[in-house]
C-alpha cells in the first residue's frame, strides 16, 4: 500500500528526514516511536503533503501512484488521512459543516453524489457512537476552545467519517484521559479492515495495548534505526531510548 | 449664506420662473446638471410642486458643496457635467431564451445556485404569463395591502401617498447632509417606499426583488422606510445576482424612520460590478444610509455584505434619539483585485440608555484596500449609553491593505464603550488542515472566510445567507496560490 524509499526531507534548509525506508501493507498497523524532535511529525506531514517541507531525495509509492506527485487534497481524496498532533482551529466553521464539505469532496472524487442532509446526519450519528463524541462539540467552531482531549477525539471522529485507507495518527493518545484513550483506541480498532492500514505515532506503550501494532519502528535523527515487533515497545518503555541512541550514534559515526 | 450667494440664488431662481428650455418630449436629458435638468426630471415624473422645490433646494445646496476627499479611496476626477441624469426606462429587446444571454453571466448564476426561472427573470427573458414575476408581485401586494402595509416604487408613493412622503423625505438625511446625498436629492430617479402601520408586524421579508418596477431604478436610487409605533419589518435590498450597469457613478440614499417600539432590520447584499482585474469599468458606489430611532425602545439593525463595486463609500448609521433605543451594524466587506472600500457606521447616542453594537468584518485580497471607518458619538443627555464595537480585518496575500479608523466622541461620563479590533491572515496551517481533509485551497479559503464572517452572515435571512456565502467564495476566486 505504502512504500517509502530513502526519503529525505528538509525544512528551511535543515534536513530533518535522512533516508527513511518503510513498507506498509494493507491490514497492517505500524507504530512509530522515537525521542522528541526525531522527525515523526515531519514524516507524517511529508506523507500528507505539507508544502513547507521539501523532499530532497527518495520516493514514496502509495497504491501504485507516486504519492509525492499529488497535491495534499488529492492525497486525502485517495484515502490518506492525518490525525494532527496539534489540530488547527477554524473559527466560525463547525465540525459538522467542515466534514460535510470534506466528505462531499472525497465522494465527488470517487464519482459519488454528494450526501443529502439526512443521510449525512445518519452517518454522523453512527460514527459519533464509535468514538462517543458529543453532538454539541460538533456544532461548535472546529477545535476552537476544545480541550486537548476533545481535539484528539474529534480527529478520530473525522477519520471515522472519511473512512481513509491509510491513517496516520500523530500522538493521538497524548491529551486523552485513561477512559478516553480506551474509547478512542477501540474506535480506531473498529475502523480497521483488511484493506486499510494505520501508522500510529506515539510515545507511550499504553496505547499499543489497545491498538496492537504488527511492527514497531524507532525513528531517531531522521532515520528508522530499529524495527521490531510489539515487544520492542515494551522494551523501550522499560529502558528508554539511550541504548538505541548509542547503537545508532556508534554505527553512523 | 453670504450676501453674494443670496443675490445669485434669487437671480437664478427668478430666471427660471420664466420657464426652461429642454424638450419635455425628449427621452433623455442632455448631458450635465443644472436647474433645467432638475426641472426636466421632475416634470418627466409629473411630480408635485413641493417635490420640485425640494429637488431644486438640494441642487442649489449641492452646487455649493465639495466632493468629500477624506475617504481612504482614490479615483480619477468625476466630471459631473458629463453624466446623463435622466433617460426614460428603455424597452430593451428581451432575449428570447437564456441561450441569448452572456454566457459569463450564466456561469456566475450557476455558481450562485440561482434557479433557471430566476435566471430568466434576472436577465429579462420573456416568461410565461403564469410565471411572470408581476403576478407573483401582485399576490404579494394584495397580502400586504390587507395589513395596511405600503410597499411600492418611490414614484408611485409620491403619487399615491404624497402626505407620507412629504412628511418623512429628508427627515433623516437632510438634503445638504453631504455631497452625494445632495446630488441624489436633486436628481434621484426612483426607488422604494415602505410604510408599516402602527402595531403591524410585517409577516414576510420585504424584498425589492418583489417590487414591480424594481428594474431600472437607476444610479440615483432613493429609499424611504417608515415604521410606525410598535411595528416590525425586515427589508432586503438587492439581490446576489451580479449587477452590471453602464452607469459608473451610483449615489443612493436610504432613510429609515422608526417610531416608538418599532423595529427595522435592513439587509443588503451589494454585488455591483467591481471592474476587471485592473480595476477598469467598475461601479463607484457612494451611498448614504441612515436611520433614526425616533421613538423610545425602537431598534434599527443594518446588515450588509459588500462584495461588489470598484469603490464603496458607505456608512449606514443610526441616530439613537429615543430612550432605550438600539442601533446595530453588521458588516462584511470583501475586496479583491483593485477594489477599494471605505465603509463603516456612525452610532449617535442621544437618548438615555441607548445601546449600539458594531460588528465589522473586512476581508482584503489582491491589490485591494479595505477600510473600516466608524464613529460612536455619545451626547450629553445620553445617560447610560453603551456601545460595543468589534472590527476585524482579514488579509489575504501581502499586496492588499486593511485599515481601521474608529472615532469615539463622548460627552457623557456614564457611557460604556468597548472597542476590539483584530487583524489576521489565513494561516497556512488552517489551509493545510482543510486540504488534508480533501478540500482544495480555493474552497478552503471560502470556508475559512465564511467562518470568519459567521456572526454577520447569521444576521441575514436564511435564503439570503446561503447566497451570500457563495458570493463571498466567488469574489475571492483566484485570490489564493
Ligand atoms: N518550521 C520548522 N523550522 C525549523 N525546524 C523545524 C520546523 N519544523 C520542525 N522543525 C524541526 O524538525 C525536527 C523534527 O520535528 P518533528 O516535529 O518532526 O519531531 P517529532 O519527532 O514529531 O517530535 P515530538 O515527539 O516532540 O512530537 C525538530 O528538531 C524541529 O525543531
Ligand atoms: Mg511530533
TrEMBL record, chain A:
Pfam hit, one: ABC_tran
GO molecular function: ATP binding; ATP hydrolysis activity
InterPro entries the record matches: AAA+_ATPase, ABC_transporter-like_ATP-bd, FeS-cluster_ATPase_SufC, P-loop_NTPase
Domain ABC transporter residue range list: 2-246
Keywords, alphabetical: ATP-binding, Nucleotide-binding
Gene Ontology cellular component terms for the protein in this record: cytoplasm
Family: Belongs to the ABC transporter superfamily. Ycf16 family.
Protein name: Fe-S cluster assembly ATPase SufC
Protein's organism: Fulvivirga marina
From TrEMBL, chain B:
Domain SUF system FeS cluster assembly SufBD core, chain residue ranges per copy: 210-451
Domain SUF system FeS cluster assembly SufBD N-terminal: 140-202
GO biological process: iron-sulfur cluster assembly
Pfam family membership, one: SUFBD_core
TM region(s), chain numbering: none
Signal peptide (residue range): none
InterPro entries, sorted: Fe-S_cluster_assembly_SufBD, SUF_FeS_clus_asmbl_SufB, SUF_FeS_clus_asmbl_SufBD_core, SUF_FeS_clus_asmbl_SufBD_sf, SufBD_N
Family: Belongs to the iron-sulfur cluster assembly SufBD family.
NCBIfam families reported for this sequence: PRK11814.1 (NF008773), sufB (TIGR01980)
Protein name as annotated: Fe-S cluster assembly protein SufB
Organism, scientific name: Fulvivirga marina
Encoding gene, per UniProt annotation: sufB
Amino acid at each position: 500500500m505504502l512504500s517509502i524509499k530513502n526519503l529525505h526531507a528538509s525544512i528551511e534548509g535543515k534536513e530533518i528526514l535522512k533516508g527513511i525506508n518503510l513498507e506498509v501493507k494493507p491490514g497492517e498497523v505500524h507504530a512509530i516511536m522515537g525521542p522528541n524532535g526525531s522527525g515523526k511529525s515531519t514524516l507524517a506531514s511529508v506523507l500528507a503533503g505539507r508544502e513547507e517541507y521539501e523532499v530532497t531525495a527518495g520516493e514514496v509509492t502509495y497504491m501504485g501512484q507516486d504519492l509525492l506527485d499529488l497535491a495534499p487534497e488529492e492525497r486525502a481524496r485517495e484515502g490518506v488521512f492525518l490525525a494532527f498532533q496539534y489540530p488547527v482551529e477554524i473559527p466560525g466553521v463547525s465540525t459538522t459543516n467542515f466534514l460535510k464539505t470534506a466528505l462531499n469532496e472525497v465522494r465527488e472524487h470517487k464519482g459519488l453524489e454528494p450526501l443529502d442532509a439526512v443521510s449525512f446526519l445518519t452517518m454522523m450519528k453512527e460514527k459519533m457512537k464509535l468514538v462517543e463524541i458529543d453532538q454539541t462539540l460538533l456544532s461548535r467552531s472546529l477545535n476552537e476552545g476544545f480541550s486537548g482531549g476533545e481535539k484528539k477525539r474529534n480527529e478520530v471522529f473525522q477519520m471515522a467519517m472519511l473512512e481513509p485507507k491509510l491513517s496516520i495518527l500523530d500522538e493521538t493518545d497524548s491529551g486523552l484521559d485513561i477512559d478516553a484513550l480506551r474509547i478512542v483506541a477501540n474506535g480506531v480498532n473498529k475502523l480497521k479492515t483488511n484493506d486499510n492500514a494505520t501508522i500510529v505515532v506515539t510515545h507511550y506503550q499504553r496505547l499499543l495495548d489497545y491498538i496492537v501494532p504488527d511492527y514497531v519502528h524507532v525513528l531517531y535523527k531522521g532515520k528508522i534505526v530499529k524495527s521490531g515487533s510489539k515487544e520492542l515497545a515494551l522494551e523501550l518503555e522499560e529502558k528508554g531510548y539511550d541504548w538505541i541512541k548509542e547503537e545508532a550514534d556508534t554505527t553512523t559515526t | 449664506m453670504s450676501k453674494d450667494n443670496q443675490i445669485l440664488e434669487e437671480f437664478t431662481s427668478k430666471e427660471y420662473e420664466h420657464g426652461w428650455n429642454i424638450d419635455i418630449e425628449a427621452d433623455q436629458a442632455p448631458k450635465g446638471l443644472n436647474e433645467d435638468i432638475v426641472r426636466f426630471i421632475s416634470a418627466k415624473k409629473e411630480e408635485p410642486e413641493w417635490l420640485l422645490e425640494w429637488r431644486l433646494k438640494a441642487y442649489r445646496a449641492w452646487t455649493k458643496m465639495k466632493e468629500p476627499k477624506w475617504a481612504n479611496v482614490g479615483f480619477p476626477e468625476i466630471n459631473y457635467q458629463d453624466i446623463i441624469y435622466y433617460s426614460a426606462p428603455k424597452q430593451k429587446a428581451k432575449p428570447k431564451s437564456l441561450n441569448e444571454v452572456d454566457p459569463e453571466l450564466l456561469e456566475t448564476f450557476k455558481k450562485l445556485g440561482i434557479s433557471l426561472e430566476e435566471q430568466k427573470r434576472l436577465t429579462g427573458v420573456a416568461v410565461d404569463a403564469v410565471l411572470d414575476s408581476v403576478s407573483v408581485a401582485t399576490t404579494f401586494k394584495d397580502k400586504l395591502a390587507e395589513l395596511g402595509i405600503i410597499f411600492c416604487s418611490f414614484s408611485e408613493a409620491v403619487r399615491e401617498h404624497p402626505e407620507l412622503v412629504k412628511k418623512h423625505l429628508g427627515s433623516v438625511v437632510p438634503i445638504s447632509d453631504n455631497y452625494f446625498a445632495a446630488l441624489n436629492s436633486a436628481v434621484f430617479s426612483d426607488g422604494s417606499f415602505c410604510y408599516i402601520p402602527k402595531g403591524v408586524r410585517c409577516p414576510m421579508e420585504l424584498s425589492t426583488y418583489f417590487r414591480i418596477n424594481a428594474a431600472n431604478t437607476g444610479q440615483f436610487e432613493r429609499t424611504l422606510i417608515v415604521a410606525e409605533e410598535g411595528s416590525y419589518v425586515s427589508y432586503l435590498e438587492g439581490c446576489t445576482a451580479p449587477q452590471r450597469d453602464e452607469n459608473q457613478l451610483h449615489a443612493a440614499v436610504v432613510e429609515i424612520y422608526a417610531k416608538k417600539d418599532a423595529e427595522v432590520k435592513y439587509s443588503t447584499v451589494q454585488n455591483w460590478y467591481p471592474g476587471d482585474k485592473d480595476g477598469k469599468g467598475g461601479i463607484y458606489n457612494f451611498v448614504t444610509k441612515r436611520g433614526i430611532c425616533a421613538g423610545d425602545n425602537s431598534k434599527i439593525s443594518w446588515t450588509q455584505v459588500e462584495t461588489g463595486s470598484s469603490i464603496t463609500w458607505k456608512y449606514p448609521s443610526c441616530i439613537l434619539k429615543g430612550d432605550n433605543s438600539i442601533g446595530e451594524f453588521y458588516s462584511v466587506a470583501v475586496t479583491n483585485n483593485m477594489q477599494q472600500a471605505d465603509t463603516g457606521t456612525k452610532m449617535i447616542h442621544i437618548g438615555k440608555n441607548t445601546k449600539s453594537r458594531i460588528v465589522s468584518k473586512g476581508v482584503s485580497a489582491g491589490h485591494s484596500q479595505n477600510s473600516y471607518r466608524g464613529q460612536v458619538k455619545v451626547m450629553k443627555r445620553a445617560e447610560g449609553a453603551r456601545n460595543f464595537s468589534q472590527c476585524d480585518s482579514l488579509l489575504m496575500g501581502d499586496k492588499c491593505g486593511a485599515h481601521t479608523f474608529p472615532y469615539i466622541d463622548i460627552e457623557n461620563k456614564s457611557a460604556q464603550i468597548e472597542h476590539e479590533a483584530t487583524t489576521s491572515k489565513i494561516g497556512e496551517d488552517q489551509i493545510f488542515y482543510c486540504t488534508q481533509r480533501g478540500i482544495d485551497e480555493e474552497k478552503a479559503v471560502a470556508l475559512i472566510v465564511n467562518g470568519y464572517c459567521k456572526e454577520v452572515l447569521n444576521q441575514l435571512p436564511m435564503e439570503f445567507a446561503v447566497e451570500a456565502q457563495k458570493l463571498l467564495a466567488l469574489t475571492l476566486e483566484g485570490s489564493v496560490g
